[in-house]
Write the structure tokens for this entry.
Amino acid sequence: MKYYLLILIFLIPINNAFGEQSMQCDIGPIDKVYGKSKWFVNSCPDNITLVIYSYPESPASPFYFMFYKKEGKYNLYGEGTGDKNYTGAAREELSKLKENDIKAIILQTRSVKK
């Protein structure tokens, strides 16, 4: 839980870097596997942005990805120092997601009961 909160706090300046309003992307999380490693997935209140961050015990940790929209198109951004074999495999898998896939994942995060 401590790691989860740290990531959420860390994401606030990233949203500003993309020219968006600050928002706390705390809807979810759901668990997913990308690139043979486990990831938490949260969505943001804008119902567009998706944040994927590595489990603390994962070899991909610490690392996060973010899907965000710019000029009507989803972009994938990632940052961290996790094992590149795992983060690269996750990036490859995530980069194949289409807009409808991302929207479906956002809906899954919104169905998590608090």
